[in-house]
Structure formats: C-alpha cells, structure tokens
Amino acid sequence: MSNTAPKLLVMGNWKMNPPTIGSAKELMLDIRKGIGRHKSEVEVVVAPPTVYLPEMERITPSQRILLGAQDVHSEKSGPHTGEVSLSMLESVGVSHIIIGHSERRAAGETDLEIYKNVQTVLKGKAVAVVCVGETHRDAHGNYFGVVEAQLRAALRDVKPMWLKYLTIAYEPVWAIGTGETATPEDAHEMRLFIQKILMDRFGRSALKKVRILYGGSVKPQNAEALLQEGEVDGFLIGGASLKAKDFTEIVKIGERYVKNNPS
Ligand code: PGA
Which of 16, 167, 213, 217 to mutate to test the pocket of ligand 1 (most atoms within 8 A of CB)? Predict the structure, then answer.
C-alpha cells in the first residue's frame, strides 16, 4: 500500500456465482452504476469467477472497479490441468489475488501451496489478499495460535520490500456465509494480534504498508461498526457482493467513515 493509496479496500468475492455471463454482466453493471466514477478513499475490487474476467475487464474500463481473482497457481505454465497462472490473470486485467481462502483450504489447499502462491504473487508485484481465520472459537483462545500459524506459514520468506503488495484478510470461518459476524471487538482484537505478528516479523513500518481486512457476513448493517470499533482497513465480502445495492452501500459507508475520520 503506497502513501497515496486509498484508505480502505472493499473487495467482493463472487465465489462460484452468478450462474451465467449474462447475469454476471448485469451484476457488474449495477455495481458500476452504484459506485460511480468519482475519486474515492475506498478502493473497490471485484473477484468474479475466472471465466468471466475478460468480459468484466471490458465493462469496467475506468479503473474505479479493479478486478481480482479467487485463486492462482504458483507455476508460470505447464501440466496443471484446470489451473491459471498469474500472467494469465494479469493479461485479463487482474490486479488483486485472493490466496488461501478458507473454502480453498477446506478443499485441500495446503500451507505450502499458500506459501508458494504468496511468493509468486508478491514477486510478480500483484496484490496478494491472504486469508487467515480459525474454524471455531474456544474458551482458551487457541484460535490466536491457529491464525498465527497460518500467517507465519504464508509469510515465510516474504521480503520487506514486497509488503506494499500484501493485504491480510481475517476471516473467521464460523462467520463466513453463516450470518454470524465477529463482533467489532473480536475483529479489533484480532487486528491487533495480526499487527503484532507483522511487527515481530518485519518491524513497525510494516503496519503502515499492510492492510488488514475483515471478512465473514459483512453487510450494510454491520459495516460501520466494524470500521469504527474494529478499525479494520476494509472488507472481503462474499454474499453481500452479489447484491449490487448492498455492495455499493458498504462502499458508501466506507467513504463516509473516511470522510468523518480524517487522520
Ligand atoms: P460472506 O463470505 O461475506 O458470504 O460471509 C466472505 C468470504 O468468504 O470472503
């Protein structure tokens, strides 16, 4: 994140939705209309299914909406059936890559693959949105250990000069798609914990460079409190990113928040 970068990042992860290119176009055009073209302190990224990317690039020419990918393969090319490389994604306009989403981890993605993907994306100077989060919470606070282990594995060998391309998304798995959200206090506590790990690993200057997002049932109703009390730097949004009205409302809540809290 450079000094001139917008304050917040709001990223939609469409996952395996919507069902056709026609409906994807409609959704993107509605989002485009809702967001407008004005300069903003909220960077907006949408990660549609890979197959829709070229058409999404065509209908989002202004750079007000940036394009993301939901995953990447760490190799440049070769015998990897069904996979896509960073250069393929970049060639259709992708600038932000989600890495290690809990649904990919649940499908068998390992810490080693996540590590390799982080290396590939950061070396390639694309933005890596690295997802971490516990599957459940226990009374003893073991979930901090889970998040720490995920982060340390993903960030091994990351060079300080790459940090401006790194974003962390804290996504407690129990809050994803469930309607249950972490409280702003939970999000804030985990933000501080992630910052401590970044500081241990890279020094204090890392805190200015790396955004920490929250994800897990973010909606217009809870976005403001998560910004205000959770002090997160934005959101990774699943379900609500499929509703143009909700997604654009969350972006507007972010814009209002930045306006009312100039730092
Ligand atoms: P959700 O998904 O907003 O539907 O909970 C978040 C995510 O999986 O990134």
Answer: 217
List the residue whose alpha carbon is closest to atom 2 of ligand 1: 238
0.85 cut: is pTM over it?
yes
Q: CB–CB of 238/176 below 8 Å?
A: yes
**What local confidence, expressed as pLDDT, does residue 62 receive?**
87
Closest CA to 149 of 107, 188, 100, 211: 100
> What pLDDT shows up at residue 179?
84
Q: Which domains are assigned to the chain? A: 8-260 (3.20.20.70)
C-alpha torsion 211→158→133→42, nearest 10:
20
- What is the token pair recorded at 234? 């934005």
For residue 216 and ligand 1, the question of a CB distance below 6 A is answered with: yes
CA atoms of 116 and 109, how far apart (whole Å): 11
At position 200, the amino acid (one-letter code) is D
What is the per-residue pLDDT across 66-77, written as a single tens digit (0 to 9) for each?
Answer: 999 999 999 999
Ligand 1 and 237: CB distance under 6 A: yes
